[in-house]
From TrEMBL:
Gene Ontology MF terms in the entry: FMN binding; oxidoreductase activity
Organism classification: Bacteria, Pseudomonadati, Pseudomonadota, Gammaproteobacteria, Alteromonadales
Record organism: Ferrimonas aestuarii
Stated name of the protein: Flavocytochrome c
This protein's record includes keyword Transcription: no
FAD-dependent oxidoreductase 2 FAD-binding domain segment(s): 7-448
Amino acid sequence: WDDEHEVVIIGSGFAGLAAAIESTRQGAKDVAIFEKMAMFGGNSTLNAGQACFTGTALQKKHNIQDSPEMMVADQLKSGRGYASKELLTVSAELGDYCYQLTKDCGSVYRDHIITTGGHSATRAHQVVERSGAGIIQPMLKTARKLGVKTVTRHKFEHLIRDKKGRVIGVQIRKGYHFGHEDSGEIINVKAQRGVIIATGGFGYNIALRQAQDPTLTAEVGCTNAKGATGDGLIEMMAAGATPLHLAFIQSGPWASPDEGGFGYGAGFSLYNFPHSIAIDRNTGQRFMNEIADRKTRADLEIQRRDKDGNPNPALLIAPKHEAKNDPSMEHVLEYNVAWEFESVEAIAKHFDVPLKPLKQQIADWNGYIDTGVDPQFGKRMDAARGVKLTPPFIVQRLWPKVHYCQGGIQINRKAEVLAAKTGKPIPGLFAAGEVTGGIHGVSRLGACATPECLAFGVVAARSVMEA
Ligand code: ADP
């Protein structure tokens, strides 16, 4: 062995960092996180910094009626029969613990809780930075303070197992440079208690994602960090673990085709969807509930085509008087991801939308705000109350991008990795976060990855410390 630790964690996103911190809370003295990229945090830094927790003091302060059972019910619906009630319940019941954990690390949440698609209660807590970095950076600092060894440019290559099949360590490429697969030197690291794999998804492994879903060609944009190549998943499959639901790859319905990666458009549209409308450019009319679950919206958005069948991204039309209350508006305007218009006529002219139906649609929508009922798509209107769609308008184009892999490796409620041959745990091996599969089923609801990654990081740590 070249190196040895009590607990070995691979990956430094929400799942890996939560596992590290909780391991120390459970008494671990020697924990190490190995990260292959030059930066910590992975995909977990690339999001709007929203997490759905239930039963928090902040929800209580705002008199929001909610419970883990309600959240699980929403998630099961979105999972379309494939989600795991057992695992979702584990995650939801740890919601308040994880919220506290991030606050203990120093994260600061906005007072305003957000309504996001597919949720029956308002429960998306958002950090003031409006970015996952507002959770990752305090967690990283805390982990280091607690004595966790954290290193970048260390790529996990293989699991090392003893004769009985127990995972006893990992092979690491030390000094790895992303994109140069034979860079660095190979070292063998012993894991006294066990290995926790928290390497995230495979949204950037184009061959693997396209093999699962042929529509996800190289031309389809991706919001992920470049390191999301499925390494941990592939290695665990090689060790006989069970892959689950790999074809369920989610595209983000809030993405903009006018910028790369996750971008600023996501923050803008997430903020504005509840009180704004999405318009088909051919008809000038709405075509979806703007806060339906992600799959429903992404599937409908990608059907917007011109008469030759080419993509014709829909328009999100938001009222500036409300949009300006979120800093994302300045960003989208500055980077040409959205544009300001003084009138409905100006929008129709610029985007070649039929004016009459568009005017009628906006008038109808403003009527729904008065009645509190959306007869077109049954949208929850509570978050739109009193927010009329009046000029000036801010308009963003909408086109889905590959965002999240619901599929991954199968775990049980203790975050133990299950072998395909026996259905039993592979001793010494635990997994948490996006690398795992089967929790969310067909479609994960928004702002539910962060709580799940944190919760199963915590669970994996508790299990490894029992092992
Ligand atoms: P999660 O949200 O599930 O925690 P993230 O994508 O945020 O997932 O984090 C996963 C992290 O794991 C990323 O920082 C990624 O670079 C890292 N990672 C992926 N593959 C490897 C590997 N082979 N060795 C070490 N780190 C890896």
